[in-house]
Amino acid sequence: MHRVLLRRLEGGHVEARDRTDDGAPAGVARLGPGELAGYVAERERAGVRWVWDDTTRWYPALLASGVRVERCTDLRLGHAVLRRSPFLDRALLTGPDTPGWDALAPAEPGDAALFPLTDPADALDPGAEEDRQRAAVAASPQRGRLALLLAAESSGALAAAEMTATGLPWRADVHERLLTELLGPRPAPGLRPRELERLAGEVRAELAAPDLNPDSPAEVLRALQAAGLAVADTRSWTLERIDHPAVPPLLEYKRLARLLSANGWAWLDTWARDGRFRPTFLPGGVVTGRWASSGGGALSVPTLVRPAAVADEGRRLVVADVAQLEPRVLAGMSGDTAMAEAARAADLYEGMVAGGAVATRAEAKLGILGAMYGGTRGESGRMLPRLARRYPRAISLVEEAARAGERGEVVSTLLGRGSPPPTGAWAQRPLDLGEAPEETGPRADRDRDRRAWGRFTRNFVVQGTGAEWALCWLADLRNRLWRLGEGPLEQRPHLVFFLHDEVVVDTPEELAGAVVEEVHRSAGVAGRLLFGTFGVDFPLDVAVVRSWADAG
DNA sequence: GCAATACGCGCC
DNA sequence: AAAGGGCGCGTATTGC
């Protein structure tokens, strides 16, 4: 299959340079302004891999022209992975414009001009960068894993752009009805909705603080303390333990005020235009490899407003999520057969109980989450020795990652994404071995920072490998969905939302059953891509629904 | 006056 | 002995 390298030229022209599989030159085309979409659509028929500096700089405009591409190489994302990978000889990746690639940021939706003249990307040579990346990967002892990671990352970039382009169907009328029921009618600008005003009045009366602004944590804290309550902050879980008549209306106020500010009428005006919610997804936006997002708070769409995500007439949403992704990934990457055995159950925590490791599901969950996050206080800490006996390989993997982080070393995901090197002052000093710990002072601060970094690297290996599993799942599913349908992307079954371990597919009603099958098949493919023949199950909860809220 | 930071809370 | 990972976003508050 040919690789076609696209490069922006002056005046809106584009150069398309063909290479054969083994890298030999195979022709070059110069395209005038406006000719790109037609050219790409034509070349897609035979199948090519597009090589470009950055998907966010090319693909949105192609999608807007109705052109979908099958595969690409995203050099920006590839560079970001490879420059940090411990599996790689960094010298092979270094070239004259490496600092430019290091600094390259994704284009933002506002930069809608297809070829901004001042784009720093235009100073970079994509052909040279592709050569360096391929040479560096080919020389790596882990070239297979790295190649998989780069392919998945590029595929994810395509999926991300497609999800923004098609959008998640969003019924403003349903959302508005929900707001009115909970908050009262939409207030004039600057005024509180009726229900918030009522609750604020109750809180003021109960605290004998007639001028209290319940939106000010500092004021609320002072008022609570003046009422004789021993609280140090105003967080909900702190207040929940306080027995005082001001607390219930205050908690309700906070809940509804949160809804208003995060997903109220202003959110609707800004983000639910034309019946679609279109956040920007940022593949690789988190150091662990998870996606970040911007616009509309896509990473935290509250369950409270999910009833407004409703498929169009004649269509359905297929909502699928993985049960306990990260513990399953930990079982796979550590090769822990006992934990993989527990993962054979649809509920991994019940599987742990059945395997005799712990007595209850709650203990299993606490213990595993503590092992992955580094929480060892209280009950999760008491679970750890038992888990370590029953699941020695899994537990030692995360413990080793924590110790490596505390030593200032870099850790890696299964496919080779490296953790960032530590920057804190503690990292410049060796471990204070054999010295008595201190309660306070600079060394106590360093120890605390060191342990915090260990918790980060402990979690990095699991969260990052979980992100790799999810990315493979997403990439394989994307291709399967395309083959299920006909016509333009938005008419076929297509991804509309992705959140760490959950996908939402928008599909014609009659294809929903087929989509469910493909979602399961993709999960199987992802498991085999990462863990080969070491059997770890990744069971899915899948629902075919009209509204997102009806899933799970 | 605007920009940066802190707080709090939603999601996984 | 103590030890809870990753985000985005809106409001209030602080800093310049």
TrEMBL record:
GO terms for molecular function: DNA binding; DNA-directed DNA polymerase activity. The keyword Transferase does not apply. Gene3D superfamilies: 3.30.70.370, 5' to 3' exonuclease, C-terminal subdomain. SMART domains: POLAc (SM00482). Keywords: DNA replication. It catalyses: DNA(n) + a 2'-deoxyribonucleoside 5'-triphosphate = DNA(n+1) + diphosphate. GO terms for biological process: DNA-templated DNA replication; double-strand break repair. It comes from the Bacteria. Residues 304-511 form the DNA-directed DNA polymerase family A palm domain. It is an enzyme of class 2 (transferase). The keyword Nuclease does not apply. InterPro entries: DNA-dir_DNA_pol_A_palm_dom, DNA/RNA_pol_sf, DNA_polymerase_A. SUPFAM superfamilies: DNA/RNA polymerases. Its EC number is 2.7.7.7. This is DNA-directed DNA polymerase. The lineage of its organism: Bacteria, Bacillati, Actinomycetota, Actinomycetes, Geodermatophilales.
